[in-house]
Amino acid sequence: MTSILSATPSLSGLDPEARHVLDLGRRADAPPFEAGTPEQARRAYDEGFPDLQGEREPVASVSERTIAGPGGPLTLRFYRGQGAPATDAPGLLYLHGGGWVIGNLDSHDEICRWFANMAACVVVSPAYRLAPEHKFPAAVDDCRAVLSFMRDAAGDLGIDARRIAVAGDSAGGNLATVLSLLARGDRIPLTAQLLFYPNTDAAQTADSYRRFAEGFGLTAATMAWFRDHYVRDAGDIDDWRASPLKAESLADAAPAFVALAGHDILADEGEAYARRLEQDGVPLVLRRWPGQIHGFVSMGRHGPAPRQAVAGAVAAWRGFDPAFGKA
């Protein structure tokens, strides 16, 4: 089953909202992340993301707890959406983006709230370990542990262990794709993988790295900086847990929703991953936003596309599972 839809591009190529965000970035004239340290990049990102996010809509409840992770305590944030049942609610593991180096529980809070309410589900967002302090595969190991926790503690969390999906954007999309593949051996029957402009090939050789190398937000130089902080050495680039596009087979992975931005260095590898999913028989809904830039789903203050993308992901999730939300 494949459904491929495209949003209508603006006449100038870039949507007005995307041009506006890029203009804001140019006026700020901040140094690129690769000009400083990871800690400086985190501070700059934390100062900037509130200007992109819209208002944080209320959900039924928000709470946090700490679980034992493979590398130490892991903090999880739980969002119970309005209308989510007290028991047997759908569960969503949302993995934040940020190049495996930046990002945190607050930077993607808006998206988690949208998912919780639109899907009437429980969203779990983990503060997985970041690079370079914790190199690959630390983030993978953390997220895998959280997914297993959601399955094993489903009753306590009020979720249905048969109704769990994974989602993420950019580097979080990378982690979500990897979890979807690992879940086959872990025997966790995921209902969906919901991916926003996922990173699927750490080699960074796709042509979109040339077409959009500079001037469209995330640059090729910044992406290389992220990647080089994440991997331990060049050998990790070919490890499918870092580059899921290199996995031998994607067959039997969870049904996939893939959202891509047209003016994004990750566009081509996202397209390539979608093609692999289709070729390996994985149900797929591919949505393209030709006039958007990388990270647009985190820009709710500046237009309707972010909410539209999340709504599309929820609709796909429901379509993959006819029993969605039923006990």
Please characterize this protein's 3D structure.
There is one protein chain. The chain contains ten helices and nine strands. It is of the alpha/beta class. The protein has one domain (2-320): Alpha/Beta hydrolase fold, catalytic domain (Rossmann fold, 3-Layer(aba) Sandwich), CATH 3.40.50. It has a nine-stranded mixed sheet with strand order 1-9-8-7-6-4-5-3-2, with helices on both faces. Strand 8, helix 9 and strand 9 form a beta-alpha-beta unit. Helix 3 (109-118) packs across helix 10 (305-320) and helix 4 (138-152) crosses helix 6. The longest helix is centred in the middle third of the chain and has 16 residues, at 171-186. The protein is globular. Mean pLDDT is 94; it is low at 1-11.
Mean pLDDT comes to 94
Number of strands: 9
The CATH topology is Rossmann fold
Name the CATH class: Alpha Beta
Shape: globular
Uncertain regions spanning at least 5 consecutive residues: 1-11
Beta strand % = 15-25%
Helix content: 25-40%
Encode the helix/strand succession as letters: EHHEEEHEHHEHEHHEHEH
CATH architectural category:
3-Layer(aba) Sandwich
The CATH superfamily is known as Alpha/Beta hydrolase fold, catalytic domain
Computed over alpha carbons, the radius of gyration is 18 Å
What class do helices, strands and sheet pairing give? alpha/beta
Spatial order of strands in the largest sheet: 1-9-8-7-6-4-5-3-2
Largest sheet: 9 strands, mixed
Q: Helix count?
A: 10
For the record, the count of structural domains works out to 1
- N-to-C terminal Cα separation, in Å? 25 Å
